[in-house]
Write a structure and sequence with these properties.
451 residues; mainly beta; 19-stranded parallel β-sheet; 10-stranded parallel β-sheet; 3 helices; globular
């Protein structure tokens, strides 16, 4: 009999995972000698193991790998082969990452390289987790995934497999590709990556309860969705993504590749868009015929509000958006800070409240009508338990584990009038391995956490 597991957005678990980045268990010791690996991997990496990855690794098609709680997977910054390609973790088979709040699984580089100055240093990065077309299912739960995103080069597995283009693309931290694949990404810390946190090219996906931080150096988002995907994104914290917390697009839609469908609700997006030039992005961006429900999200000190183009074109999926989409009942808060990066020759936006009200070329004023909007730094403070919206720089990307994004009693974000939303996987769920996972239900407040 399948066991039903409901995925909850758990702030305390996410914060605990952040604080465990260097100390993988209570003692800070794994208790086991490191094991060096490369090439094909399968079976079980037992709790507390230290795995040193010295070359590209892959889970073969038809095989599976289970990674138990407290495992440390450490990737060599020297790369693979003569070209020193960033080491890629390719999943052709099935992957089950089963960490816990107390003992998360760590995917990282050597401890001495885990410092703020290396957050976007390509010489201290590995390639990321890439689920190929043959990967039927994957679970990543209670893991820390960090310092990823080196450039894809000639000979990189993702380039050889036709997923990314050598010389043009950088590795996201997690890549999902198979349209009928089943992927559950829950209660993780996904941070300090050159490119997207999660790039969904295809698949049925639950993304919930995660903490994203410092995703994207000169572009990219926390979560980026394309055609061929059905995704629930709920209860996540997204701090300082370079461009958007969420980019929802049906780019690549065709007869073979179906329309992107996304329910995005109860997410908290903070400081999005300020590290990106021009008018690109800023919190949530919907384009190219994506069918979306974007409600009860909390945007704090973001550069722009949730946006869609001003036109629709249902006969041309490369233009516009699906006008059956709902983008409404979100909450926009602005502090008083002025950005240290202002592109005067483009938008000239320097304050979050100014960006929310900017007449953006990609904004349709007919959506988001019922949302709460800061028109200046005027008391729209959501009253977080521990995060001062007036003190953290708009361009800051280093996450502080002491922050607490629960809402205080009396927070204006605790009330939302959004209609009931039925997530795609809240009833029947997604079965991965022997368990069926359910998306969280819509909560009657804006943001990832209530009181």
């Amino acid at each position: 009999m399948k066991r039903i597991t409901t995925i909850l957005a758990a702030a305390l678990l996410a914060v605990a995972a952040v604080s465990c980045a260097k100390n993988i268990d209570d003692s800070g010791e794994s208790g086991k000698e490191p094991v060096s690996i490369s090439g094909k991997v399968q079976g079980v990496w037992e709790s507390g193991s230290v795995i040193e990855v010295t070359d590209h690794v892959n889970v073969p098609e038809g095989q599976s790998l289970t990674i138990e709680e407290g495992v440390q997977v450490i990737f060599s910054e020297k790369g693979a082969g003569a070209n020193h390609a960033p080491i890629e973790f390719t999943v052709n088979g099935k992957l089950y990452v089963k960490g816990s709040a107390e003992k998360p699984v760590l995917f990282s580089v050597a401890e001495e390289l885990r410092k703020d100055s290396n957050i976007f240093n390509e010489d201290a990065m590995w390639g990321g987790i890439v689920a190929t077309e043959s990967c039927e299912e994957m679970l990543i739960s209670h893991a820390i995934i960090e310092y990823t995103g080196g450039q894809v080069i000639e000979g990189s597995p993702a380039a050889t497999n036709g997923i990314y283009t050598a010389g043009d693309d950088a590795y996201p931290q997690i890549t999902l590709t198979r349209m009928d694949g089943r992927y559950v990404i829950t209660d993780n810390v996904i941070r300090n990556g050159w490119s997207d946190g999660i790039y969904v090219i295809g698949g049925n996906v639950i993304i919930s309860g995660n903490t994203f931080a410092a995703n994207g150096y000169d572009g990219a988002e926390a979560v980026n969705v394309k055609a061929g995907s059905v995704v629930d994104v709920a209860g996540n914290i997204m701090f300082s993504p370079n461009t958007n917390g969420l980019k929802l697009s049906s780019s690549g839609q065709s007869v073979e590749r179906h329309q992107a469908k996304v329910a995005a609700y109860n997410n908290t997006v903070i400081n999005a868009g300020w590290r990106r030039d021009g008018e690109k992005g800023g919190s949530i961006y919907v384009e190219k015929n994506a069918l979306v429900t974007v409600v009860n999200n909390l945007m704090v000190n973001c550069k722009f509000r949730a946006m869609t183009p001003k036109y629709t074109s249902p006969d041309d999926p490369e233009k516009g958006y699906d006008d059956d989409s709902v983008i409404d009942y979100n909450y926009y808060a602005s502090g008083s800070q002025k950005s240290s990066i202002v592109f005067d020759e483009e938008s000239g936006v320097a304050f979050a409240w100014q960006g929310y009200n900017y007449d953006h070329s990609s904004y349709n004023p007919e959506v988001d009508l019922h949302s709460t909007l800061a028109v200046e730094a005027d008391g729209k403070d959501p009253l977080f338990v521990n995060f001062d919206i007036n003190s953290v720089s708009l361009t800051e990307y280093v996450y502080d584990a002491s922050w607490d994004f629960h809402l205080k009693e009396g927070s204006p974000a605790l009330v939302s009038t959004a209609a009931s939303v039925e997530p795609y996987f809240a009833v029947n769920g997604l079965t991965v391995g022997s368990e069926t996972y359910l998306s969280p239900a819509l909560k009657p407040y804006c943001g990832a956490f209530g009181k």
